[in-house]
Amino acid sequence: MIIKNNGFTIAELIVVVIIIAILAAIIVPGSNFSYVASAIISESEIASEPLKQAVEQHYLKYNKFPNKQNLQEVLNSIKKPKRVSTIELLPEGRIKITFDASDIEIGGTWWHSLNNPLSNDLTGKDLILVPTVKNDKLIWDECNYGSVPMRNRHYKCSGHK
What we know:
161 residues; 38% helix; alpha+beta; 6 helices
């Protein structure tokens, strides 16, 4: 008696689907979001907090934004994180944070760089924190100014959850 086998078993089909899924995960990057770049940015925002508070206090006291001379002592006392080259006060109370992450390799493999050429390197890029007055309170906009890519900014700006 000869038994003729037609088609594939379910186990064989599952193995083929799993192999295809693994190959797709290796070839296609899921996202170009960099947790390293986002951590550097978050650390710099925390480091700039004393300056933000000083700008707020100056505004509440004098009803105008300070200049560099008004807050030079605060600027000098800020401890810059490792990958931040400068934190400076601009006109209208804006705070500019410039990054230097040239000592680390940010990004995926060479294959990922071919598929998605966007860079997560922050070297030379800046983030500008802009104060806006609403109902006698300063609200800081960290989403719309500077050359840091949106995908690396705070989750409320980048769309990452």
